[in-house]
Amino acid sequence: MPRHTMPLETVAVTVPEAALETFEAALISACETVGFFRDDETGDWRLEGVKRIGVKDAELAASIALAAAVTGISAEVAHVPTPADGWLAHSYASFPEQLIGRRFAVRGTHLAGPPKPARISLVLDAGVAFGSGEHGSTRGCLLALEAVARRRPRRILDLGTGSGILAMAAAALLHRPVLATDIEPWSIRVARENAAQNGLSHLVRPLLANGWHDPSVRGPYDLIFANILARPLCAMAKDLASNLAFGGTAILAGLLANQVRWVLAAHRRQGLRLERLIPQGTWTTIVLRKSGVR
């Protein structure tokens, strides 16, 4: 996969926890990778996104302004030049092999040595590895997938696929085709490249689509991943429930612990029942089931 050749910058903002989700979405609109760091003394969160200097500046400014208007928080945004080589070296150092559950190993392309035996190895480029397994929401989804695998779901959707890691994991574990959708063209390109790199192009089908609005995304599905954000999850609860097959499972993630209650309530109103909560640090994954027979 090609490395960055353009100058990079780190965009940083510090906000209270209540504004984390909104400002995260703002940075994601323009940055190629976004990380979060909590200050244990203040409880505030520092968000850092890496982007190419001069690329998507207008989109970033507009998204930050919108986040400030929505939350009522006017946060100072710092822009710091970031040498590409230094950023990649930092990415490699912070992306060791991740052993998740009993079945999965997530590895960077920079790692030498053979893969772990008796595990499904998913290989990603650490230079662009958002959703790479070290994030609690991704880990929670992979743990949930292990438990759901015994039901042998046939029709599978990864909504908001990002790097494609969940689609690849499901395809490799279940040997089933997976539709992997995202609203961001860059994510679709990366997911397609990752699927090819892992020998899963025949099972993972990345598709550029705006959530449930694209007719080609309509179900029913036996398994739906939605590792996105709390607000859009709530807004899409009705669509998700109507596109989930009877007896099917939905795995929802991208949620801080204090967001679980209202996301869960939105889906319970659509007739889905809670099967399991999987906490991973400050993040929680929700596993839901639609009652009935397939």
Give the key terms.
294 residues, alpha/beta, Alpha-Beta Plaits, 2 domains, seven-stranded mixed sheet, four-stranded antiparallel sheet, 9 helices
Polypeptide structure, described:
By secondary structure, the chain is of the alpha/beta class. Helix content is 31%, strand content 31%. The protein has helices at 20-28, 57-71, 84-93, 136-148, 165-174, 185-197, 230-235, 237-242, 260-268, and strands spanning 8-15, 33-38, 45-52, 78-82, 98-100, 104-108, 120-124, 156-159, 178-182, 204-208, 221-227, 244-256, 272-280, 283-290. The strands form three sheets. A seven-stranded mixed sheet has the order 10-9-8-11-12-14-13, with helices on both faces. Strands 2-3-1-4 form a four-stranded antiparallel sheet. Strands 5-6-7 form a three-stranded mixed sheet, covered by helices on one side. α5 (165-174) links the parallel β8 and β9 (178-182). The chain is globular and about 50 Å long.
What number is the mean pLDDT?
85
List the helices and strands in order.
Answer: EHEEHEHEEEHEHEHEEHHEHEE
CATH class of the largest domain: Alpha Beta
**Any idea how many domains?**
2
The CATH topology assignment of the largest domain is: Rossmann fold
Give the amount of beta strand, in percent. Answer: 25-35%
CATH architecture of the largest domain: 3-Layer(aba) Sandwich
Our Rg estimate from Cα atoms comes to 19 Å
Give me the CATH superfamily of the largest domain.
Answer: Vaccinia Virus protein VP39
Secondary structure class reads: alpha/beta
Total beta strands: 14
**Helical amount:** 25-40%
